[in-house]
Amino acid sequence: MKLDNVFKKTRLASGRKGYISLNMTKPEVPEGLLRKCNKCGGAIIAEDVKDDFYICPKCGGYFRVHAYRRIEMVADSGTFEEWDQDLTAQNPLEYKGYEEKLVGLQEKTGLREAIVTGKAQIDGTEVVLGVCDGRFLMASMGEVVGEKIAKAVERATKEGLPVILFACSGGARMQEGIISLMQMAKTSAALKKHGDAGLLYISVLTDPTTGGVTASFAMLGDVILAEPKALIGFAGPRVIEQTIGQKLPKGFQRSEFLLEHGFIDGIVKRHQLKETLSQILLLHTLGYKNGKDLELEQDCESQDGQGVYQGELSVNNRLAKAWDRVQLSRMKDRPVGSDYIRELFTDFIEFHGDRYFADDKAIIGGIARFRGIPVTVIAQAKGTNTKENIERNFGMPSPDGYRKALRLMKQAEKFHRPVICFVDTPGAFCGLEAEERGQGEAIARNIYEMSGLKVPVLSIIIGEGGSGGALAMATADEVWMLENSIYSILSPEGFASILWKDSSKAKEAAEVMRLTAEDLYRMGMVEQVLAEPSAYTIENLKEVTGILASKMEDFLIRYGKMSETELTRHRYERFRRM
């Protein structure tokens, strides 16, 4: 038998182009041989595919995975307990041939419906799982799929468990009409109750995730992950092309496209998925209860005053140093936000996107551990070289960056995580597109929401603190500054341009703006100022972070003892005094 004929017969037996079944009852090929990879056209050996997480060993393309095989990949062996296995679809529209189609699929796949739900453990953490299976009517969402998801989420809410749903679907099930449409509302409402209970929902998007599933449970995760190159969108590419009469660009609606446009937190390779899920679950399992969960490494009770400016400097001395401080705050080799994250925190997982438009690389944010407890950490990010600075827009966030930061802060509030912000920006980006997308509204919304966050918030100015672009990440319980950082209404150049119509007088402007750390400390604008080495670079970063870590620990203990009402009242009164 010719190899091409083998591939042809295997394709017919598997029932779907592009899908590999390793468990056919009547193999049409010699044991171990499969068909051509539908992506690269290479011949594939069954064991190679199976041993490599159903990934083509030649081109790295991802094949779709049966629900039970997916569960084997992510769940601890022997821990999965299936729920609601016997629920089966009706025929609400009395659609001709639908009942026979369902019976045929049940016999062929061994599934009763297009999703498998139940409870399992991932590295010992108990979770509720739901996994769509594309073999069953392309995992379209009918009444039973919606019901199984809703029941699983409701049970997770009752038992206080996180939910992980693996989406793979062609969308709503046409044969069930309006009943299918209502499952979008049903599943979303169940997840809203689960979220209101302060519980974690992780959505994992696989190829393809489209239609009503995308417009409901798939895109509602506290954390949304995707497999590489998965097709994800509301309307399918063919429908879009037929509607607009244009050819779509390469990569449109793929995972990478969604990451760039701010709709998902990250793309995770299949080999790394269990480990990533485990890390996220663990960071949400650990608690922060009145500051008592810190792994205390030293006594912090006597730290008051260390690193805080003492005494008074003369006015002449202060004025003479103002422009020097500005220059030092802008030094190219000065440590940046990512350096502090790397040095102060462990297990950092970066989350991406504002869920509206883009992933602004001028803001880095995610979850991590600080001395044993989970925190949300967000940094305005400058680069360490010209290429990185261009990529990060020189630390000037767009509205998308502020919305990403706020999304992460609200997520921290839901899961009772303290928020630690590192501020370092010349100011918010002032381009045309920033105004089109609402820069002012984005900054205002951050300040508004931060003023009422029900978790401790600490902001540390590590370089430049420029205008509202800095305040949008510094509406905190306390604001600290490094010795040579600055914090001002705008840049000295801008100040001179507005008041004196001459930006070249920036040095003189710096001397009257009172923008240095000691100025602001005396004025009561900031709570602490931390000393720096005379030549501050990444090489001596630990001299600063050593003191900073002790003070952060003290902050978390003190503010962790406050109730939500005390926290918000304290923050309000802090700014009310100014």
Walk me through this protein's architecture.
- With 578 residues, this protein is of the alpha/beta class.
- The chain is built from 22 helices and 18 strands.
- The chain has helices at 3-14, 46-51, 67-74, 98-109, 143-159, 177-196, 211-214, 237-244, 255-260, 273-285, 315-329, 337-344, 386-391, 399-414, 432-436, 439-450, 467-471, 492-500, 506-513, 517-522, 541-560, 564-576; strands at residues 33-36, 43-45, 81-83, 115-122, 125-132, 163-169, 201-210, 223-226, 232-233, 266-267, 346-350, 363-370, 373-380, 419-425, 457-466, 478-482, 486-488, 528-530.
- The strands form three sheets. Strands 3, 4, 5, 6, 7, 8, 9 and 10 form an eight-stranded mixed beta sheet that branches. Strands 11, 12, 13, 14, 15, 16, 17 and 18 form an eight-stranded mixed beta sheet that branches. Strands 1-2 form a two-stranded antiparallel sheet.
- β15 (457-466), α17 (467-471) and β16 form a beta-alpha-beta unit.
- The longest helix has 20 residues, at 177-196.
- Mean pLDDT is 89; it is low at 1-29, 296-306 and 310-320.
